[in-house]
Structures are given as C-alpha cells and as structure tokens.
Amino acid sequence: MNPTTLVTATEVAQRQVRGNVLVADCRFDLADAGKGERDHAEAHVPGAAYFHLDRDLSDLTKRGLGRHPLPHDLVFSAALARAGWRPGVDVVVYDDAQGALAAARMWWLLRLAGVRNASVLDGGWSAWRDAGLPVESAGVAPAQTDVHVALDRAQVVWFDELERRRASGDVLLLDARAAPRYRGEVEPIDPVAGHVPDARNRPFADNLGSGGRFKPREQLRREFEALLDGRHARDVVHMCGSGVTACHNLLAMEHAGLTGSRVFAPSWSGWVSDASRPVATGS
User: Which residues partner with 55 through β-bridges?
Assistant: First the structure.
C-alpha cells in the first residue's frame, strides 16, 4: 500500500492507535442524498467524521460547471475544521462504493489544497467490516480547529484549456463512466447522452479486482500505459459525469506511479450545459 494513495483497513486501525489521523466517512448515494449520512449515524469507523458530497465537497449553487462543482474554499475549510483536522494530521477517506462516491473526490480535493498525507481506504466500508474491526454509532465530537485551505484551481482543467488541447491533439481524455453511458446508449442522470468527441473510455470499475479492492499497482500501470501508448501521464485528463468518479482513475494512476494527470472538473454534465458543444456517440 502507498500512504499517499491507498491503505488497508488493518493499516488504518494501526494508525488510529498511534494517533494523529483523521478518518473521513464520505459515503453517498446519488439517488438518496441523505442515505450516507444516515448510514454514518448507524455505524462508522470509530472516530470518523462525516463529509457530505453535496454540502462539503461541492458547491451546488454554481451553474454551468457540472452537477458537482468544486466547493468554496471556506466551505471545505469549515468541514475540515469541524472534523478537528489541522496541518500535519494524516487523513484516511472511505466510502461504500470502492472509493468512487466520494472518497477519491475528497482525496483529490485535499491534494488541490496541498494536503499530501491523505489516502483512501482500499475496499472502503466493506473492507473495514470484512476485517472484523470495531464500529461505532456515536462518538465524541472533536474539538473544532481553525484551519483555512485554498484549492489550487490551476491544477484543474476547465473548458478553455480542454478545447485548446483537443484542437492541438496533445491530450488523452479518459471518461470514467460505464461503457453504455459513454457510448450514449443510456443516460440516467444528465440531459444529453454520449461523450466528448475523441474521449476514450476507461470505466472506473476497471481499476478494481476481487473483493472491490484496487488491482495490484503493477497491473494498473500496465493497463494505463497501454492507454497512454507512449504519452506522458501529464497528457491525461480525466472526466466522468460530474467530476467525482473521474478522481478514481486519477487515484489509480497515481497509485500505479503514473503521476501528473488532471481532472476536467465540469465533466460531462458541465460539457452538455452548453448546447453548442459537440457530442459523440458509439465507440
């Protein structure tokens, strides 16, 4: 495991004994925005603080930037402060969707904020339960800290850069959605089906092996290198439906040692907010 990408449930438990670690529960259900919070109240990793995708990790007041625009710096800072985080404290993030909703998203936001001592629990909530580790349904609220972080939006890809790089052909755009959505055969959420022209499909589920754990890093590296076909990881831009599951592919690449790829934050939902932008279907 890599302490800046993935950790096991046993490693998390050991780090909690040593202290100086914040565990963040990011469970979320797109069909029921309150379910993750209710699940957290019922049972969670001891000491874990809950982070809500819509409230803490996004700013839903923004328009034209997709279904999950980046949160305001003050909102993200306040969520970290409520959880008792301060600089120097490690962060371990988990969800119940193998990192895709929304553990990898929070991990990415922490990286944008310059917090590199953060990792995702490989296998998430299921891995914790499968390991027979203790859970709690209530806990003592941590002492609130006074922290202020700023997301480095220069690390994020926006419309102008994506269009410029698509025109010059120096970008490999990887779409993390399931293949039927990428091909435009189904679209359960967004108003338009299909994908950005020239985007390649790398469903985030392809990063996972048995038991919902990430594949070995050597295997991930081989698979992504086949997609890169000689390109550098810096040439890769990730997208998905709303900028959440795209982070799963970025996490997988970083874990595989292929560093420097970025996320097109508005993703498909932001792309189709302007009817003049082109849409492709099929493979």
Answer: none
133, 44 Cβ separation under 8 angstroms? no
Which pLDDT score, from 0 to 100, does residue 24 have? Answer: 98
Residue 2 has pLDDT above 90, yes or no: no
Find the catalytic residue in 89, 112, 240, 246: 240
Distance of alpha carbon 113 from alpha carbon 93, whole angstroms: 15
42 vs 26: CA distance, rounded Å: 14
- The one-letter code for the residue type at 71 is P
Asked if 240 is an active-site residue, the reply is yes
Neighbours of 235 (CB within 10 A): 16
- Stretch 140-145: mean pLDDT, rounded? 88
- Tell how many helices (H) and how many strands (E) occur in the chain: 10, 9
Pick from 88, 95, 93, 144: which is nearest to 116 by CA?
A: 88
> For the whole model, what pTM was predicted?
0.97
Q: At 189, list the tokens.
A: 């959420």
Residue 128: strand pairing partners: none
Domains observed in the chain: 6-151 (3.40.250.10), 156-271 (3.40.250.10)
What phi and psi, each to the nearest 5 degrees, are found at residue 98? 55, 30
Residue type, position 3, single letter: P
* Amino acid of residue 276: S
Q: Give me the count of residues in the chain.
A: 283
